Each structure stands twice: as C-alpha cells, then as structure tokens.
Amino acid sequence: MSNIAVNFSNVNYRYHTTEGETLAVNNLNLNVNEGEFIGIVGPSGCGKSTILSLISGLITPSSGTIELYGVPVTEPSQKVAYMLQQDQLFEWRTIWKNAVLGLEVQHKLNDETKRNVNNLLERYGLGGFKNFYPRQLSGGMRQRAALIRTLAVSPDILLLDEPFSALDYQTRLTVSDEIAEIIKKEGKTALLVTHDISEAISMADRIIVLSARPASLKRIYEIDLPGLSPLERRKSPLFPQYFNEIWKELE
Hints:
Blueprint: E1 4-17, E2 20-33, E3 37-41, H1 48-56, E4 63-68, E5 71-72, E6 80-83, H2 95-99, H3 101-105, H4 111-123, H5 139-152, E7 157-161, H6 169-186, E8 189-193, H7 197-203, E9 206-210, E10 217-222, H8 230-233, H9 238-250
Parallel strand pairs: 3-8, 3-9, 6-7, 7-8
Antiparallel strand pairs: 1-2, 1-4, 4-5, 9-10
C-alpha cells in the first residue's frame, strides 16, 4: 500500500477582506499517495491555488488539518517546492547560478549538491547551456531550468501552479511532456493546478475536480493510461472520453 504524502482532513479556509469573511475551501478531504501525479481542475477563482498554498504552509487552515507524511503542516516545509506560472529565473544570473539559487538560500551549496545540479543539467539537456543567461534560452528550456532549480533542493512534493500558461501552445505541449517525464523519473509527488483539462489528463494519475468557490471536492477521476507519455495519451481513444466527462462535471 502506498504511503500517503498529503492528507487533507475536513479542511476549511476563510480569508478576510474589507467586505468581510469569505469561505474559500469547504470541508475538503483528500489523500495524495507518495509518487502520485495529481491534476487539480475547477472553475476560475474556485480556490485551486489556495489549496497549493495550504499544502506549502504559506497559509494555515481555518479548521481541519493538513499532514505531510503524517506530520501536521504548521509552517513552510523544505519537503515542498513550488513551480509557478513564470519561470522566475534571474536574468543577471547564468543558468548554473539560477539552478543553485535555492541551495544558496538554504545554505546547502556544497560539493555534493553542486554535483547533483550538474547531473540534473546534463540529464535534462541543459549541460551545454549552464553558462548561458535566461534570455538566451527558449521558453521551454527556461521552464526546464526552473524545474531543475526546484529539484536541486531535493523536495519530496512539487506544487505546479499553471507552470506552462506563459508558453505558446506548441511549446506548452512539448514542455509538459518533458516536465512530466522528468518528475516521473525523479520519483516525485506532484500536484498540478491547471485550467486546461487536456493538460491534466495528459499528465496526471488522478484528477481532482473542484466545485465553484468555496472549493469542495466534486469528483475524482482515475486516469487509466499507464505507460504512455503525455503526448501519447492525447492520441488514446480514452482521451476524449475523459475530457468530455470532466468538461460536463465543470459545466
């Protein structure tokens, strides 16, 4: 039986504005298994990114508990790393210097971690570009560099918040394929927030469908397309069936 990486138990989250209190997440119960790739879809503004912020410990539930590997989340954890919509690479740092930034911040830059970063850059096609600057790379290569920076600090859980939305469609397809393969090879647990149903089906083991705000769990879809890459999944006869079912759930 899989170890549970993330557990939501009766989680509610309210935020306060000048207009008053707003319930953003409503009684959410959810388990994510270690090594699993989860897609999260739902109506715009429903609270998808709020769920990632709760997992990361950037915000805390109003009630209920969130656990990472059985330990309650009370503050940001080094077990968790974010990959955001923009690659957030510093233009004045080389790809190498960007890749080791998290290690510098965590005071973990040493001979062993440097070797690991070099191995990641080589393994995923950026070894020859480590002395380049971000502006010299394509959008897809920049996203790969951003993922390597994220992996360099050895997180257990990756939170992906619309990480491909700034890319053009063709690049987005290629990069989502590359990123999914890298995450699988590295054996990471990942949660992907996306507005793109096709993207979720192409990458995820399971898809969480959320209601309109306040976000509550509507349905979970098991995506039974084992052994196929994201691009191969899109050609499967099951792909449009999943798409139509999830689309109807969101209507």
